[in-house]
């Protein structure tokens, strides 16, 4: 809109009072301009762009965590087609990462060809680029440490996670830890080197995050509608906050 010689425009610049007959119109314009600014950082439209941060923290880092993994964008492919393609190519596990505005919030692990499929909530995610002074990530097959999985369900979840990794070589200096505490599984990734015959130097290489399991289904990912539920977390029961499922304590 182009306005020429309007009293509303002249009064602020010349430090004069707005004429009486225009004050109501000025108040209305002031109210309409209250939210007429540049918006938040990086917003280029009056429409809230909820996909602005999508891809900022990309789950591609998981490709380097699991030896032999291949990353792909789902795009418009339906889940059934992806699972069939994985089975046809001898894939052992299908991992699906859910994100919200670029931050990973969920992980699905589906073992092929017959299941099970485990569902996890992701929290406290720290990507590699957020950890200072990191070098390149080793792609050697890692040694695994699992701690705190003492119940029957805990051993089941531990098996689902540790069989994502191949058998390492004895001289591998890469270590991945899954440590359970109060049903939150801490994932940590380190490399070590021997300083001398008595000391070892441990270096975190990331990423790091916490996993909270909430469901295990029999069958593969595309069978959600028909597969039986082996276990499900019920957060709205009276004892949900007090009970732990992955450890016998």
UniProtKB/TrEMBL annotation:
GO CC term, one of those recorded: Mpp10 complex
The keyword rRNA processing appears for this protein: yes
Record keywords, A-Z: Ribonucleoprotein, Ribosome biogenesis, rRNA processing
Domain spans labelled Brix: 60-222
Keyword Ribonucleoprotein on entry: yes
Protein's job: Component of the 60-80S U3 small nucleolar ribonucleoprotein (U3 snoRNP). Required for the early cleavages during pre-18S ribosomal RNA processing. Part of the small subunit (SSU) processome, first precursor of the small eukaryotic ribosomal subunit. During the assembly of the SSU processome in the nucleolus, many ribosome biogenesis factors, an RNA chaperone and ribosomal proteins associate with the nascent pre-rRNA and work in concert to generate RNA folding, modifications, rearrangements and cleavage as well as targeted degradation of pre-ribosomal RNA by the RNA exosome.
The protein's name: U3 small nucleolar ribonucleoprotein protein IMP4 isoform X2
GN (gene name): IMP4
């Amino acid at each position: 809109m182009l306005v020429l010689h309007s009293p509303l425009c002249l009064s602020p610049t010349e430090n004069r009072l707005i004429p009486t007959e225009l004050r109501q119109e000025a108040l209305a314009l002031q109210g309409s301009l209250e939210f007429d600014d540049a918006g938040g950082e990086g917003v280029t439209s009056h429409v809230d762009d909820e996909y602005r941060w999508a891809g900022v923290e990309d789950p591609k880092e998981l490709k380097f965590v699991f030896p032999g993994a291949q990353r792909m964008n789902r795009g418009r492919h339906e889940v059934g087609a992806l699972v069939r393609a994985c089975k046809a190519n001898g894939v052992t596990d299908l991992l699906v990462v859910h994100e919200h505005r670029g931050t990973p919030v969920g992980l699905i692990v589906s073992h092929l060809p017959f299941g099970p499929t485990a569902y996890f909530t992701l929290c406290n995610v720290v990507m590699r680029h957020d950890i200072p002074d990191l070098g390149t990530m080793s792609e050697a097959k890692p040694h695994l440490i699992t701690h705190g999985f003492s119940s029957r369900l805990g051993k089941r979840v531990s098996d689902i996670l540790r069989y994502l990794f191949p058998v390492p070589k004895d001289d591998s200096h890469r270590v991945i830890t899954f440590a359970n505490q109060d049903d939150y599984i801490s994932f940590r990734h380190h490399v070590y080197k021997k300083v001398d015959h008595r000391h070892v130097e441990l270096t975190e290489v990331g990423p790091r995050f916490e996993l909270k399991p909430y469901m295990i289904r029999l069958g593969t990912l595309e069978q959600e509608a028909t597969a039986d539920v082996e276990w499900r977390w019920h957060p709205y029961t009276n004892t949900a906050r007090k009970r732990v499922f992955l450890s016998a304590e």
